[in-house]
Every structure is written in structure tokens, then in C-alpha cells.
Design brief:
Layout: H1 2-51, H2 63-70, H3 72-105, H4 109-122, H5 127-137, H6 142-150, H7 153-156, H8 163-186, H9 191-199, H10 204-233, H11 236-242, H12 249-257, H13 265-297
Helix pairs in contact: 1-13, 2-3, 2-13, 3-8, 3-10, 4-8, 5-11, 8-10, 9-10, 10-13, 12-13
Length: 298
């Protein structure tokens, strides 16, 4: 009996301390939760509510969504955004896989330099990136002039100010982001597996096809969904280059809120909800494929 009483008096203060620490952690999280609520949750609710309200005033309506899915301008914006996002995400994943694989095989100072370069390049975006592409690949750009001088038609006739030209710019800032996301995933590919594959007579190609890529596939798919969402919502670079001369979802959303004559918050809300819906669909697709790969491995 005395042993039970002693253990009770020893455990009760410990439980109280644990509860106190839990409350302290929650208190420390309050500023973050407050900022997230004010700058994430509240704007999201307002956008969704506005999307069901007519710009002329009044009650509930589906007019804004009808405009988005019936007018050619907004249909083209959706198609262009999905097209550029898919192209840049696929190209970014392919290039990033090679870069992350190089880090996996490399070591020492070379890896440090490469990681430093990645961090620098990943922050080079927006208006400076648009200006750099104008200097290199614009109508009077250095590389275009070089193509004209040497007679290389692919460079001489390159048009940066198209959806395909925009896709190249998107690839630029997708590659470093994808590489930084994939490098930690390569740590899950143990070198002992490669040694075992070699001892059993397997080639390097067989290892990556049968072992490496299936192990990395959940991370690759997760990275792809991040890249797709990143490209779908990108705005600054493309707007600095094209202004309103290309129809993309972020450009149309911005135009709805800062119109020269009249703002259209309802239409902007419907376009924003449409963009979020496309992101959610892509995330669900990649998560579903990822689960299948994980079940296959199990």
C-alpha cells in the first residue's frame, strides 16, 4: 500500500508538468495560429463567399462560375495554365532527378558548391528573371542575335512571348525547387541495395528501374504536385514579361481585382476557386498513384 501511495505522489507531479508543457507549447503556437487564421483562413472564406455573389450586388448566384466556364477568354486561361504547369513540372522533375542523383553520387566540396548554387538560383525569380530572359531571348536578345549570326533558325526565330516561351521560364524556377525537394528523398536509396544488385549481376539501369525509381516514386509524385501548384499560381515573372497579353489564371485573377474601370471580386473569386480546385484535383491524383506504388512495394 505504501509503495502504491509513493508511486502515485511521484507520478502526479510528472503528469502536471507534462500538461503544463503542453499548454506552453499551445501558447507558443498562438501567434502562428492567429497569423494563419487572419492571412490564410479568413481570405479563403471571403474568396469562396465572393465567388457566389454577383459583382452588381445581390444574393447567391452561379453567374460567376458560368462566366468562367463559358467565356473563351477564361477557358483559354485555364487551358494555358494547365498546359504550362504540366510541361514545366515534367521538365523540372526530369532535370531535377539528374541533379539530385548527381548529389547522391557526389560528395565533399563539389556538393557544397552545387547546393549553394541551387539556393541562389531558387531565389532568382519575379521581375529580375523576366528581365534576364528579355536580355537573352527577347526579340532583340543576345542569344537570338547569335542564332541569326550563325544561321541557326531555331534560335533566330525563337519567340519568348508565347505560351511555349513562358514554359521555358517556368522550367527555370521549377528545376532548383524540385532538386532541393528530391535530394533528401535520395537518402532513402541505400547504397547497400546498389552493392547487392551488383553482386547479383544487375546493371545500373536495372537497379534504378527495379529498385531506385519505385522507392523514390512517392517523393517524385509529391514533388510533382508541389511544382504543378507552384507553376499554376506563378504570377510576377509572366506579368512582367507579358502584362495582359497572355491568358493565364493568375493574370486573369489579378485583372479582376485591379481592373482599370471596375473591379470584379465575384469573378476573381470564381477564378481563384477554380484554380484551387485544379490544384486539389492534381494533389488527389498524385496521392492516389503514390498510394498504389506504396501498396505495390508492400
Amino acid at each position: 500500500m505504501w509503495a502504491f501511495s509513493l508511486s502515485y505522489f511521484l507520478l502526479v507531479p510528472e503528469k502536471k508538468n507534462m500538461k503544463k508543457e503542453k499548454y506552453m507549447y499551445l501558447l507558443a503556437l498562438l501567434p502562428f495560429l492567429l497569423v494563419a487564421f487572419l492571412y490564410e483562413i479568413v481570405p479563403l472564406i471571403m474568396i469562396i463567399v465572393n465567388s457566389f455573389q454577383p459583382d452588381s450586388g445581390g444574393g447567391f448566384t452561379l453567374e460567376n462560375y458560368q462566366t468562367v466556364f463559358t467565356q473563351l477568354l477564361y477557358q483559354k486561361a485555364i487551358r494555358n495554365s494547365i498546359k504550362i504547369s504540366l510541361i514545366s513540372s515534367i521538365a523540372g522533375i526530369l532535370v531535377a532527378f539528374i541533379g539530385a542523383k548527381a548529389v547522391y553520387h557526389g560528395s565533399g566540396r563539389l556538393n557544397t558548391i552545387f547546393m549553394t548554387l541551387l539556393n541562389v538560383v531558387s531565389n532568382f525569380a519575379g521581375v529580375p528573371l523576366a528581365f534576364a530572359y528579355m536580355i537573352l531571348l527577347g526579340n532583340a536578345g543576345f542569344i537570338v542575335h547569335l542564332g541569326q549570326s550563325i544561321g541557326w533558325d531555331a534560335l533566330a526565330g525563337y519567340n519568348l512571348y508565347t505560351s511555349n516561351g513562358m514554359a521555358m521560364i517556368y522550367v527555370y524556377f521549377q528545376v532548383p525547387l524540385a532538386t532541393l525537394l528530391l535530394i533528401p528523398a535520395f537518402r532513402g536509396v541505400h547504397r547497400q541495395w546498389k552493392e547487392a544488385n551488383t553482386l547479383l549481376g544487375g546493371t545500373n539501369g536495372i537497379f534504378w528501374r527495379k529498385i531506385g525509381i519505385p522507392v523514390l516514386m512517392p517523393s517524385i509524385l509529391g514533388t510533382f504536385s508541389v511544382l504543378f501548384s507552384n507553376a499554376l499560381a506563378a504570377y510576377a515573372t509572366v506579368y512582367a514579361l507579358m502584362m495582359n497579353n497572355i491568358s493565364l489564371l493568375p493574370v486573369q485573377i489579378a485583372g479582376s481585382y485591379v481592373g482599370e474601370v471596375k473591379t470584379k471580386p465575384g469573378l476573381g473569386g470564381a477564378l481563384s476557386v477554380t484554380m484551387m480546385f485544379i490544384m486539389v484535383i492534381m494533389i488527389l491524383i498524385t496521392n492516389g498513384i503514390s498510394r498504389r506504388f506504396q501498396k505495390g512495394r508492400a
